[in-house]
Each structure stands twice: as structure tokens, then as C-alpha cells.
């Protein structure tokens, strides 16, 4: 069954290779957002505390649908809008590659309230272990 995710104004996609991946191996993935967005390749850019950015920021409309970058299972989910990463989830495909969505919606529709209402973070059916395609 296809499950869609919900998108905030900003989403960060991080793709991590499977532990067995060979150097230089890459995966063809689906663009993770339905509809028009803007994005910047800011992977590796400096961040506070000496960190570097480990994803790609994608800017879209609030509640715009996210699409699974690859089919798999939801292997991690967090609904906590505090900190720098906020609500997030990870999809792990059958080869062990991980696709992590960060900064997922934390507002009530039409607001910037940071209320983090559960019904607007992920679409119904998205939970730990759910299958996405």
C-alpha cells in the first residue's frame, strides 16, 4: 500500500548507504516531494558547533505531500519538534539503505504555531514498521 507523508515548509532528506555498500555506489531514488519545490545542494555546508550539513534542504508548501524516496519500511520515527531536527522518520529499503526525512511539519494548518499536532505530522498509517512504496 502506498503511504504518503506530510511536508512542512522545509524538509531535509538524508540518504545513508547500506553498511555493505561499496565506495562510489549510488542509488536512483524518487524525488521525495509531490509538486513544485525549491532546493539547494547544501550538503557539507558548515553548521553551528563545527558540524556540517548532511542532507539536502527542500522548500515546499506546508502540508505538501512527501513521497517515499524508495520503497521500504519505516525504521525510525520521532514526533518531537524541539531541537534542530524536529519531527523525523527514516525509511530503510530491502538492501539496507536509509532515507531520513527531517524537519517534518510541526504546525497546525494555516499557522506557524509550533503546536506539533499529531494528526498533521504524518499521514494516517505512517508508524514504526509501516511499509511505503
What does this entry show, briefly?
0% of the residues lie in helices and 32% in strands.
What does this structure look like?
The radius of gyration is 14 Å and the shape is globular. The termini are close together. The chain is built from no helices and 9 strands. Strands 3-4-2-8-7-6-9 form a 7-stranded antiparallel sheet, with no helix packed on it. Strands 1-5 form a two-stranded antiparallel sheet. The mean pLDDT is 85. The chain has 133 residues and is mostly beta strands. It has strands spanning 5-7, 10-16, 38-40, 56-59, 64-66, 72-78, 87-92, 98-104, 131-132.
Query: What is the CA–CA distance across the termini?
Result: 7 Å
Quote the beta fraction. Answer: 25-35%
Gyration radius over CA: 14 Å
Uncertain segments are none
Q: From the helix content, strand content and strand pairing, which structural class follows?
A: mainly beta
- Identify the strand order in the major beta sheet: 3-4-2-8-7-6-9
Average pLDDT over all residues: 85
Order of helices and strands: EEEEEEEEE
The portion of residues assigned to helices is under 10%
The backbone outline, from C-alpha atoms, is globular
How many distinct beta strands?
9
How many H/I helices?
0
Question: For the report, how would you describe the main beta sheet?
Answer: 7 strands, antiparallel
Notable traits:
globular; 7-stranded antiparallel β-sheet; 133 residues; single chain; mainly beta
Blueprint of the fold:
Layout: E1 5-7, E2 10-16, E3 38-40, E4 56-59, E5 64-66, E6 72-78, E7 87-92, E8 98-104, E9 131-132
Antiparallel strand pairs: 1-5, 2-4, 2-8, 3-4, 6-7, 6-9, 7-8
Amino acid at each position: 500500500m502506498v503511504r504518503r507523508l506530510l511536508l512542512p515548509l522545509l524538509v531535509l532528506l538524508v540518504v545513508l548507504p547500506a553498511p555493505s555498500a561499496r565506495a562510489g555506489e549510488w542509488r536512483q531514488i524518487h524525488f521525495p516531494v509531490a509538486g513544485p519545490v525549491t532546493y539547494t545542494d547544501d550538503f557539507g555546508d558548515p553548521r553551528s558547533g563545527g558540524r556540517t550539513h548532511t542532507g539536502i534542504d527542500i522548500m515546499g508548501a506546508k502540508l505538501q505531500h512527501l513521497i517515499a524516496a524508495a520503497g521500504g519500511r519505516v525504521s525510525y520515527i520521532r514526533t518531537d519538534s524541539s531541537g534542530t531536527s524536529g519531527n523525523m522518520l527514516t525509511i530503510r529499503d530491502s538492501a539496507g539503505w536509509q532515507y531520513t526525512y527531517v524537519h517534518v511539519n510541526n504546525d497546525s494548518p494555516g499557522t506557524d504555531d509550533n503546536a506539533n499536532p499529531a494528526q498533521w505530522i504524518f499521514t494516517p498509517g505512517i508508524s514504526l514498521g509501516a511499509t511505503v512504496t
